[in-house]
Amino acid sequence: MAADKEKLDFDVIIVGAGISGINFAYRLQERNPELKYCILEGRHEIGGTWSLFQYPGIRSDSDLFTFGFAWRPWVGNMSIVHGSIIRQYVEDSATQEGIDKKIRFLHQVSSMSWSSLSNTWTLSITSNTTTNIFLRSRFVFLGTGYYDYQKPLQASIPGIDSFKGKVIHPQFWPSDLDYANKRIVIIGSGATAITLLPSLATNSAHVTMLQRSPTYIASLPREGKFEAIISRALPMFASSRIIRLKWILFSLFMVSICRHFPRTAKRLLLQRTAKLLPPGTNLEPDFVPSYNPWEQRLCLCPDGDFYSSIRSGKASVKTSKIEAITPHSIKLTSGEELNPDIIVTATGLKLCTAGNIAISVDGEEYDISHHFAWRAAMVEGLPNVVLSWGYSNASWTLGADSTAQLACRLLTRMKKEGFLVIVPRMTPEDRETLKERPFLALSATYVKIGGDAFPKTASTDPWRPRSYFWKDLAVARWGDIETGMEWLR
């Protein structure tokens, strides 16, 4: 990667200063310290999702022991914490490693173009002071997440524009919203709705979660006994790693049970739900999902706060489709009518890849969604670009780290053997024989709506979707990086 170095601004440009970008920067400093890099961040601070989302109660939907970085394990007592604490943790981690000095804030990448003549990427950037900044790099790492930061998912809700009260989308929660003693209806049943309900119920008159179909909601202790014992018995260095290992194994075990024994998993989850609801509550129709556990992401509520709000009478769940929204009510197909002061549309995220950056290769527009993903990290026909994706059934950070370690391994070989370009290529035989698979194996509505924004995956290596952490990490460190990859000097 040394050739034409005088013409480059950086060896590697990282886009995004969230979990993925900060983690990759650490791995790059650890394993490829000779490479010059910078991070371009469109926002004013470190944090990504945890900087953008500011709705009441915003928190992780994965345990912090696996959501935290492997190189700076989470040492707090609580497994699920408020988003502001996560953002501060990411910032402190970056500061500890000097990564914060490499970040250029308020630098939004609008486009990136590859030239095979110079074997470089040119990124076009808009900043707060200059509209046209151009930076050149040999390699690009996209830690841009999986959803659109500028535009939320606009669900089709009949009559929503006629409502005279406030309509709020959680992605852009107004800081001055006064919901004290107001009647609130949250439309949706995913992690955001389940987080919002107990938070809003504290000060509002009443909160109703209006859903088309139920979701599995598991209660998780904020502070576990195992973690408390290990933390007291062992030094922090050892205890934090043992606790993290426990949670990685626990997550793998739970997903495996749900996938292989769905009836048993469903029965156990519903038995637990029944115990947390007010006595005598019928699970049908509000708490029995129509799908098996982990066909959609399992939602968590710390210390059962979601169910506590229902038991208190401050919150309720209603399962029905919306017939129409009038200026002052929500009419349901069941014949019932709700009269909220505020409607919150927690209907999911608008999915996108590469942060909506316009990409071109040798002057030709390049659409990631039309191509197959190599090792769930690169995309066929896209030179010297790694995209970071996490897991849908485990912590995002685990997937981001296996991708980062794979990227560093690729960079190490490029430098060692004098390669300037790596680009995944699919053979004609591959195209004829492979069977396409969804990039995300989830049946959630927002995934069905926007899933075609992701690259394609297939049934055979190296075009398979993500598997599970241990396997993906083994592939990243020692797996085949020749098949499906073209190495060019």
Question: What secondary-structure arrangement, pairings included, does this model have?
Answer:
Elements: E1 10-15, H1 19-31, E2 37-40, H2 49-52, H3 64-67, H4 83-96, E3 103-104, E4 107-115, E5 120-127, E6 133-142, E7 166-168, E8 183-187, H5 191-201, E9 206-211, E10 217-220, H6 225-233, H7 236-260, H8 262-276, E11 299-302, H9 305-311, E12 315-319, E13 322-325, E14 330-332, E15 337-338, E16 342-345, E17 358-361, E18 364-366, E19 373-374, E20 378-379, E21 385-387, H10 396-417, E22 421-424, H11 428-433, E23 436-437, H12 445-450, E24 457-458, H13 469-478, E25 485-488
Helix pairs in contact: 1-10, 5-9, 6-7, 7-8, 10-13
Pfam families: FMO-like, NAD_binding_8
Protein name: Flavoprotein
GO molecular function: flavin adenine dinucleotide binding; N,N-dimethylaniline monooxygenase activity; NADP binding
Explained architecture:
This protein has helices spanning 19-31, 49-52, 64-67, 83-96, 191-201, 225-233, 236-260, 262-276, 305-311, 396-417, 428-433, 445-450, 469-478; strands at residues 10-15, 37-40, 103-104, 107-115, 120-127, 133-142, 166-168, 183-187, 206-211, 217-220, 299-302, 315-319, 322-325, 330-332, 337-338, 342-345, 358-361, 364-366, 373-374, 378-379, 385-387, 421-424, 436-437, 457-458, 485-488. With 489 residues, it is α/β, with parallel strands linked by helices. It folds into two domains: 5-150 and 351-488, FAD/NAD(P)-binding domain; 160-345, FAD/NAD(P)-binding domain. The strands form seven sheets. Strands 1, 2, 3, 4, 5, 6, 17, 18 and 21 form a nine-stranded mixed beta sheet that branches. A five-stranded parallel beta sheet has the order 7-16-8-9-12. A hairpin with a 5-residue loop joins strand 5 (120-127) and strand 6 (133-142). Helix 1 packs parallel to helix 10, helix 6 packs antiparallel against helix 7 and helix 7 (236-260) packs across helix 8. The longest helix is centred in the middle third of the chain and has 25 residues, at 236-260. Keywords: FAD, Flavoprotein, Monooxygenase, Oxidoreductase.
